[in-house]
């Protein structure tokens, strides 16, 4: 009888230990696979890269499909990357050897922030052989579009016809500091965007690329269609295809198809062959 009781106790202990181990495994799995949208809000300009707020507000996979996997109509593309102060010093030779041929580098935000790693990133990508450009993270509630375009040009956002410099890009996305549309009406947002674009063109001779998501554009501009014939579109979507475009654009120029956090930059695909990327640089 004592032996039987001992076996019963051992079986109960074994079952209890197994249950506890299973619970630990499940907990670890859930923690490791928490979605990027559940991450804590970013805290400052160094943490605001192109797409940082798109991922928080729109969710989606952290790493999307490689362009061309599900789009047989895409005949040619060029691999690119975008970086900001979040990455620090970037290993450009590693990226070049992996096939990256163009880069966008965050230069400014609002009218008070400049990327402390801008020189290493902007000059480093150029020196390794990439075609590169810079971008500005817009804060429309802080100052006018003209003020921010001028600040951008004066702090790394210029353009020259050297065959290796892309037109500057305006990153307009969800407000990391407050209300989605920065407290502006749709009409006021459209006017702000036109103010930035017109000023940038007056300063550089080029129309800026616009980086935005379709969802944000619909919400904050009323899906305004007046920019598509003027400004090239750089669109983020972390899925297997570029998806719906904002009104006015019949095609995208650049697709940001992954967002990794990031540590080595988000990855982008230029919609065309290398000679078309050169044409965009040359204006």
What does this structure look like?
36% of the residues lie in helices and 14% in strands. The chain is globular, with a radius of gyration of 23 Å. The chain is built from 8 helices and 9 strands. The termini are far apart. Residues 1-10, 12-41 and 60-74 have low confidence and may be disordered. The chain has 2 domains: 1-33; 38-282, TIM Barrel (Alpha-Beta Barrel). It has an 8-stranded mixed barrel with strand order 1-2-4-5-6-7-8-9. With 283 residues, the protein is of the alpha/beta class. Helix 5 (145-154) packs parallel to helix 6. It has helices at residues 2-32, 52-58, 92-97, 118-128, 145-154, 186-204, 214-221, 274-282; strands at residues 78-83, 102-109, 113-114, 131-137, 169-171, 209-211, 233-236, 254-256, 266-270.
List keywords for this structure.
single chain; 283 residues; alpha/beta; TIM Barrel; 2 domains; secreted; glycosidase; Glyco_hydro_25_AS; disulfide bond; Glyco_hydro_fam25_subgr
By helix and strand content, what is the structural category?
A: alpha/beta
Strand order of the largest sheet: 1-2-4-5-6-7-8-9
Number of domains: 2
Report the CATH C-level class of the largest domain: Alpha Beta
CA-CA gap between termini: 92 Å
> How helix-rich are the residues, as a percent range?
25-40%
CATH arch. level architecture of the largest domain: Alpha-Beta Barrel
Kindly report the name of the CATH homologous superfamily of the largest domain: Glycosidases
Instruction: Give the amount of beta strand, in percent.
Output: 5-15%
Mean pLDDT: 81
Shape field: globular
List low-pLDDT spans. 1-10, 12-41, 60-74
InterPro entries: GH, Glyco_hydro_25, Glyco_hydro_25_AS, Glyco_hydro_fam25_subgr
Catalytic activity: Hydrolysis of (1->4)-beta-linkages between N-acetylmuramic acid and N-acetyl-D-glucosamine residues in a peptidoglycan and between N-acetyl-D-glucosamine residues in chitodextrins
Function: This enzyme has both lysozyme (acetylmuramidase) and diacetylmuramidase activities.
Family: Belongs to the glycosyl hydrolase 25 family.
């Amino acid at each position: 009888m004592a032996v039987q009781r001992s076996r019963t106790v051992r079986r109960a202990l074994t079952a209890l230990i197994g249950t506890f181990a299973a619970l630990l495994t499940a907990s670890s799995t859930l923690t490791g696979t928490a979605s990027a949208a559940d991450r804590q809000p970013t805290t400052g300009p160094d943490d605001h890269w192109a797409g940082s707020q798109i991922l928080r507000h729109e969710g989606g996979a952290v790493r999307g499909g490689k362009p061309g996997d599900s789009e047989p109509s895409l005949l040619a593309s060029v691999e690119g990357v975008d970086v900001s102060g979040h990455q620090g010093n970037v290993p450009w030779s590693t990226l070049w050897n992996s096939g990256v041929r163009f880069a966008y580098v965050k230069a400014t935000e609002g009218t008070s922030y400049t990327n402390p790693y801008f020189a290493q990133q902007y000059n480093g990508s150029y020196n390794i052989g990439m075609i590169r450009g810079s971008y500005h993270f817009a804060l429309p509630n802080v100052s006018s579009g003209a003020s921010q375009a001028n600040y951008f040009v004066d702090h790394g956002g210029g353009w020259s016809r050297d065959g290796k410099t892309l037109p500057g890009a305006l990153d307009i996305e969800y407000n990391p500091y407050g209300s989605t549309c920065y407290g502006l009406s749709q009409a006021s947002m459209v006017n702000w965007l036109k103010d930035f674009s017109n000023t940038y063109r007056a300063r550089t001779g080029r129309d800026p690329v616009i980086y935005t998501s379709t969802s944000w554009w619909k919400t904050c501009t009323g899906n305004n269609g007046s920019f598509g014939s003027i400004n090239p579109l750089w669109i983020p979507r972390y899925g297997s295809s570029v998806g719906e475009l904002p009104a006015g654009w019949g095609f995208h120029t650049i697709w940001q198809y992954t967002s990794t956090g990031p540590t080595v930059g988000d990855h982008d695909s230029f919609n065309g062959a290398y000679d078309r990327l050169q044409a965009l640089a040359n204006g």
